[in-house]
Write a structure and sequence with these properties.
Order of helices and strands: EHEHEHEEEHEH
Largest sheet: 5 strands, parallel
CATH class: Alpha Beta
Distance between the termini: 14 Å
Oligomer: single chain
Mean pLDDT: 95
Number of strands: 7
Strand content: 25-35%
CATH topology: Rossmann fold
Shape: globular
């Protein structure tokens, strides 16, 4: 299953939805993570908050390919995208294991294929390096086999990258 998390405006909705099995719009119309860890323990992979991200753990956890489209924010995901990713912490469990000679949380949904990030906006060389490292580490933590980061100057390039 291909899942796209994006912070683009509504004019891109049709394009995004035609290129995936499930799209999560990071539009800020949801509550930020409360850090209660209920999605880890009380009700696994489901947030107690009843909004459009209540099932984000299950949706992202089911993704073979996760595509994140985000505006650059100093070499980091935009705040709305970061909120979506924070609300998906339940894709893992509170238990730990070794993966790649490093300690990580046990995956609730098993391994995945690709963690792909498409970054738009002005990006410095240092921010490019930060994004690449961030995507690589996120991919490892969430059980993705590989990561890829693409940078676009103009969103008209987006269709060819999806």
């Amino acid at each position: 299953m291909r899942v796209i998390v994006y912070d683009l405006d509504h004019s891109y909705e049709e394009l995004i939805e035609s290129k995936c099995d499930f799209a999560l719009a990071a539009d800020g119309k949801y509550a930020p993570c409360q850090g209660c860890f209920g999605c880890w323990t009380k009700h696994p992979a489901e947030c107690f908050m009843r909004d459009k991200l209540q099932q984000a753990c299950r949706i992202i956890g089911s993704a073979d390919e996760l595509v994140i489209i985000t505006r650059n924010l100093y070499g980091e995901y935009s705040a709305p995208v970061k909120n979506v990713l924070d609300r998906s912490i339940g894709t893992s469990t509170p238990l730990s294991t070794y993966r790649g000679a490093q300690m990580h949380h046990t995956l609730r949904y098993g391994r995945h294929d690709l963690w792909k990030v498409i970054v738009y906006g002005n990006v410095t060389d240092a921010e490019r390096n930060t994004f690449r490292l961030l995507a690589e580490r996120n991919a490892i933590n969430d059980g993705f086999e590989r990561s890829e980061v693409l940078f676009v100057q103009d969103l008209t390039e987006l269709e060819g990258l999806l």
